[in-house]
Q: What sequence folds into this?
């Protein structure tokens, strides 16, 4: 702009919470069928909480272990009063996340 260029902005990315029926997930959680939750961002974790918290008997959510890609997302879980310490992956890539999930499962003695 400073040199006379015409600049046009095009917003082509927007984060929005998923529009889903969370009742089946809540039923699975109540039945202790959810072993671990993987979240890749603080926004994703907040969306999960916002979707499930209003449902009856959703107290199970904060008792399930989390795999997170960073200390920042782990700190978000603490602010949301998660009852178990999140498992922080060695990185945000698919390989690191998968390796963390495998390691967690082996540590549970159910691999």
A:
């Amino acid at each position: 702009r400073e040199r006379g260029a015409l600049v046009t902005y095009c917003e082509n990315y927007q984060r929005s919470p998923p529009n889903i029926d969370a009742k089946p997930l809540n039923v699975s959680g109540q039945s202790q069928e959810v072993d671990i939750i993987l979240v890749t961002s603080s926004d994703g974790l907040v969306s999960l909480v916002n979707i499930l918290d209003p449902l009856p008997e959703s107290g199970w959510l904060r008792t399930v272990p989390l795999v997170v890609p960073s200390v920042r997302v782990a700190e978000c879980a603490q602010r949301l009063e998660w009852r178990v310490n999140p498992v922080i992956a060695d990185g945000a890539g698919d390989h690191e996340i998968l390796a963390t999930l495998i390691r967690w499962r082996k540590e549970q003695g159910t691999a």
About this structure: Helices lie at 23-30, 42-52, 71-79, 94-107. The CA atoms of residues 69 and 93 lie 8 Å apart. The longest strand covers residues 66-68. The mean pLDDT is 90.
